[in-house]
Amino acid sequence: MIQLTLPSGIQVEPSEDGRILTLSVGPQHPGSGHFRLIVQVDGDIIVDADPDPGYVHRGEEKMCEYRNWIQNIPHLERPMIADSCGILYPFVLACEEIGSIKVPERAKYIRIIMAEINAMIFELYWLAIYGIFLGHSTMFMWPMGDRELLIDLAEMATGARVTHAYFVPGGVRNDLPDTFRDKAIRQLDYFKHRLDQYKDIFYTNPLFLDRTERVGVLTAQDAINLGVTGPVLRASGVEHDIRKIEPYDVYDELDFKVITMKTGDSYARAYVPYLEMYERINIIKQCLEKMPSGPVRTKLGPNPKGPVGEAFKRVEAGRGELAYYVVSDGTPKPYRIKLSVPSFRMIAAMPHLLKGAKLADMPAIYWSLNYWPVEADR
Amino acid sequence: MTTVTQFSFTDFVKSLLWLAFWILMIVTLIILPIIFIVLFYVPAPEIEGIEITPYLLLSMMVNPDIGVPLLKATMETTFFKVAVFPGFTFAALFATIIIFFERKFLAKMQLRVGPYHAGREVLWWARNFGGFFQMLADLLKLISKEIIIPSGADKPIFWAAPVVLTVVASGLVALIPVAPGWVVADIDVGLLAVFALLGFFPLTALLASWASNSKYPFIGGLRALHQMIAYEIPLILSVLGVVILSGSLNLSTMVEAQQNYWFILLLPIGAFVFFITALAELERVPFDLPEAESEIVAGWLTEYSGMAYGLIQLASYMKLYALAALFVTLFMGGWMGPEILRFGPPWEPDLMIRGHMVLTVEEGNAFFWFIVKTFGIAVLMLLPRGINPRIKIDILLRTGWAKLIAVAFINVFIALGLLYAGVIHPVGVVGT
What we know:
The complex is a heterodimer.
Chain A: E1 20-25, E2 36-42, E3 45-52, H1 60-64, H2 69-76, H3 84-99, H4 105-133, H5 137-158, E4 167-168, E5 171-172, H6 180-203, H7 206-212, H8 220-226, H9 230-235, H10 242-245, H11 266-290, E6 308-316, E7 321-329, E8 334-340, H12 342-354, H13 362-368, H14 373-377
Antiparallel strand pairs in A: 1-2, 2-3, 4-5, 6-7, 7-8
Chain B: H1 9-41, E1 46-47, E2 50-51, H2 57-62, H3 64-75, H4 78-83, H5 88-109, H6 134-144, H7 155-174, H8 190-198, H9 200-211, H10 215-246, H11 251-256, H12 263-266, H13 268-281, H14 293-296, H15 306-331, E3 351-353, E4 356-359, H16 361-382, H17 384-387, H18 393-420, E5 424-425, E6 428-429
Antiparallel strand pairs in B: 1-2, 3-4, 5-6
Helix pairs in contact in B: 5-15, 5-16, 6-15, 7-8, 7-9, 7-15, 9-10, 10-13, 10-18, 13-15, 13-18, 15-16
């Protein structure tokens, strides 16, 4: 069990004399997403934090039961439009397993390229908001601007800037254009150069270090007990990456490192995604070189369906392990779809880290956990 | 049963014309006669032998021989000093330009464009300043917005806080000497008065936060108070060196003491401490804890809206001007500088119109140097916003109490050493 320690002299129970102040952070608060965090503060110390999600529940899982495989694609990426390929990836893999669909080799590489580009788009978005949460307005603008480089690439491949609806059971929707490779290498080289500059202005800034180092420390054992995934888990020193331990598509043929840090504080949680972006650029470049030519989509019938069966598939999205459990009853429409999203796991760690922290540490801890209310509510 | 009235352009124009008609009628029939009757009985002032009557007004506008002496006489009045030049209007204009510059400058740092469209067609000759009218648009927006008062707020204090802040900021501006003789209040305890006025700001912030009857403003107000206690003492200690070297608390005397060397050269540590504490005093990034957006919404400003918010912002930017000007006055020689501006040929360099002197060349140069230096320091104060995140309150308190006070004391000892080692005479460097 996780033991909670508070600084001495701090009351936990709400008192009559008004020593404890209850703050409702959100849903209308610039420092919260579409969710509420009921925080009780004693002076500047948080004595209790109670997350209250559910403001943007859209019933994605139920909606899936009324649509067939292809119809499910556009709406399944809505919970996480910043990482739309990442959230669609396991669904497509699960459908392929149920229907025993063979995917062309080229499509597998294209999927990895798009998934990594989308993960970077997501991570830049996240980094931008992390910057503004700590009051660093330049760190809001720079990643938001550089995100355009990658959005351009995604738009070139898919035709849409944000919600691509690009992955389909049996491959991808269309082939990459001829000029994609050259443009991608040029944009990624420039982007790498920009990433180096982030380090100067953000990651080595003494005030940023003051704000995040030794703040919200999540030990490796606590991280495993609470069930967090992705960069948050790796920042605590646990080497856990679905791309390595359960490779899907062609990840086993690619050469990349799993980034981990030992400290488990907010700084590590901010730094791991940054270092991962270098690895992602690396992966995309490898894919662009190894990619064979050929078809990109297996032709399915007009209303594809599989036999009675079930499939559980998981991938490493930008925020961590994202899993789908799909049950088919033999009809074109799935009988049940269950999304297991990484954001929902992070919410368990939030009260654990916030209790005993200072109110000023709240944005640093909250946003370093990579919690996306829209994705968690589904 | 309510009927929905359809918008009709004809009716709209008709109503406008009707309005214009009534305004014209009222002005011509009632207001103008009243003005003329009143002016008939009011005794007119006399300038250079000409009695100034309202009937001369039009000819004054077109005839410089009458207009310039009148202008000169106006410039020498206290009212002009308080309301226009070294006083409120100048400071507010400076604040507006600083806000615009901040937005453009920050935009350049952050790889964006900033205000761009408003006024681009109007200022066609200055395309680079396109967007300057955004300030005007923002002002109009703030004026036209409703001021919402939260239920349960302490209304008198809630209303008073923005006004008090603006008044106190104007009071600070009044103490700043812009040129020899060009200061609203040239008092012998000028520096003490500055600190007395600076003490008002966190107090007003706390009152405003308490009056808002809301939780986030309350936390913001407490933070403002914490910040003041941590930073007021190093701020006062940092200027003690200047007082020791110049031997005066009068700001004009302090500037004159820097005739040979700026005090920033002799007391760089004091200047550094003053700059840092001034940032904290202004609640600017990285010391914007009382307004920390992601933690406590907008801090003690949360419940303010409309022009009440606008007044608070105006006060804070006027304070920025005042503290930048104070830095220039204390450490960078105020209005001192080489004579580079000349309004005429070398044998007659003053600004003359039709033989009437408007501005001497010394005054012109003093204004120029003061404004240039103040603008430079103000820009330096804007710079941290682009490169720093917000500091944490415990680190802020530790820095203020432990580090800056110690450093400020070292500065005082340096000043004393310079004085008693005989390097410096109380009125200037090496006994001028």
